[in-house]
User: Fold this.
Amino acid sequence: MELSQKEYEHELLRLQTELVYMQEWIVARGQRLVVLFEGRDTAGKDGVIKRVIAYLNPRTCRVVAVPTPSERERTQWYFQRYVAHLPAAGEMVLFDRSWYNRAGVERVLGFCTDDQYEEFLRFCPFFEQALINDGIILVKYWLSVSDEEQERRFKHRLSDPRKRWKFSPIDLQARARWVDYAEAKDRMFAYTDVEPSPWYVVEADDKRTARLNLISHLLSLMPYEHLDEGGSPELPPRQKRKYLRPPKRSEHLVPARYVVDSH
Assistant:
């Protein structure tokens, strides 16, 4: 289905409304949802996550981007840092990169040993199966971007001061070691693309297309229902009693440098 920009925006809003219904169902039913977003640098993970959470309640939906481990954390069980962020009943957690760092950047750039890497590939399916057995709904997305599109996005980031912060020394390595990353991703899939927790690949050369396809697919995986058949609650009458408020001049008002015409 080909959409115009206006049609895209309309469909995105419709899907985001369904995400709100899905979240309400998760909260009401005490479900636990974990969604992993993985992919090469510039694949569009941040943009997708931003659209997913746009209208969701942040009290029960969290985005987790686990930082570089501290010296203490490097001595812990590898999965320990991620387990701490798993959801409780009625919550959903979106991982902006996840425990699969070990199979990707850590493997390619030598941040883990060969033994640690091999143990990760062996154990990861069992770890995810344990999450599923405990009732967690686990969904894994890989955003796939071509080398040509990644190159274009890298150059755009470097030329745009609003996005330059996204470009790190690790990104330089991602570009320089394209084949190494491709090989690591393929081996990761060979071990962890299993029936209980499969990888769902999203073609992401076009960001808007990827956003619609991913959100639509996520909704299709969740057996949620609309729980608002009773209608919206009615506003209670505003309280009325005499009260003299202090004058505006007593407040520290922000200067009105802009006035936007609402017409």
Notes: The first strand starts at residue 32 and ends at 39. Strands lie at 32-39, 61-64, 91-96, 136-144, 199-203. The mean pLDDT is 92.
